[in-house]
């Protein structure tokens, strides 16, 4: 049974200033330029907590939280609550909405088959977030998960709640409107808790935060007195039904920094793919991928020339990609790109992030990086469907790193959760 709880959220007060100057993208989406921009926006911008520029960043974050609480910049809610959270955004000319639930989710190890990962994780970012938890004793950002709700029990709950005026409504700098409804009514809380208790969940974003939270929980359990109601057993999470029409996954394109497309590689590709030269424009490349979205389609862009690739036959691919993986995983485009094109045909071996390989979340940006000389080749792919991510994760198989980009990201700075050892839920 999945256990979700209301929590006493720590939130900005009016004293902090205009909310649009306070919220941020998740910490791992903030580069140096964006970090500086956030610092310029406000002395209370949330970046100063999740990703301080100062060297002693963990201690600085803790000091600021305590100072802002004492000054009334931040305030802890009197009543426990869950929040219905909605993002409204434009994509390809149409307006989309995505609605989910922010609540305290009990932490489950992956072996308990309640919460599943879908991507691989790395030690360095986990150590970073664990150090932050150890120091601030707060969940600063939610983990983003999906679950299945074919009966629409939670969807109906969201519909009912969102008929009222939102508690918070903010437009971020990327043009996304974020709306938040606070729910404290005990009867309503019971309805949504019952609707969620038979679910399984898949992490879409925040794997490192989730795994760090489990490590933090285990540490505290060894050192502190705790009960099943202790907040250390939970993490603040944003949970969206996989059936939500606004649940969007964008493709993550791969760019090779130094490797070029030679005639020999082009000839080798012909063994597996039908190859068509296409006009090297954003519109033409995106059109090719869209027109072949139900096939295994790729685009290679090298600046002056671009090629569309269509897989001829799945059978020889299954003999090359990782042995023993389920067919639905082996035949994902990102896996074919990695194992067949990069490793088997181009003989590239293991590619290191930022040394050999870059990622881009838009066709235009990928082309601009090649044109600017930051990379020699861009390999463009179609996005993975949310349902596919859901199905694969529950088979306990993880996708290659940066296989998915669930868009938009939940902003940081709307809610914070206290996980001090004495905090109870």
What does this structure look like?
The chain is built from 14 helices and 21 strands. Strands 1, 4, 5, 6, 8, 9, 10, 11 and 12 form a nine-stranded mixed β-sheet that branches. Strands 15-17-16-19-14-18 form a six-stranded antiparallel β-sheet, with helices on both faces. 32% of the residues lie in helices and 24% in strands. The longest helix has 17 residues, at 207-223. Helix 3 packs parallel to helix 4 (123-136) and helix 4 (123-136) crosses helix 7.
Q: What does the secondary structure layout of this molecule look like, with pairings?
A:
Blueprint: E1 4-5, E2 10-12, H1 32-41, H2 47-50, H3 57-71, E3 74-76, E4 82-91, E5 94-106, E6 115-116, H4 123-136, E7 138-139, E8 143-147, H5 153-161, E9 168-171, E10 177-183, H6 186-196, E11 201-205, H7 207-223, E12 234-241, E13 248-250, E14 253-256, H8 263-269, E15 273-278, H9 282-291, E16 297-301, E17 306-311, H10 315-318, H11 327-330, H12 333-345, E18 357-360, H13 363-371, E19 377-381, H14 386-393, E20 405-407, E21 417-418
Parallel strand pairs: 6-11, 8-12
Antiparallel strand pairs: 1-5, 2-3, 4-5, 4-10, 5-12, 7-21, 8-11, 9-10, 13-20, 14-18, 14-19, 15-17, 16-17, 16-19
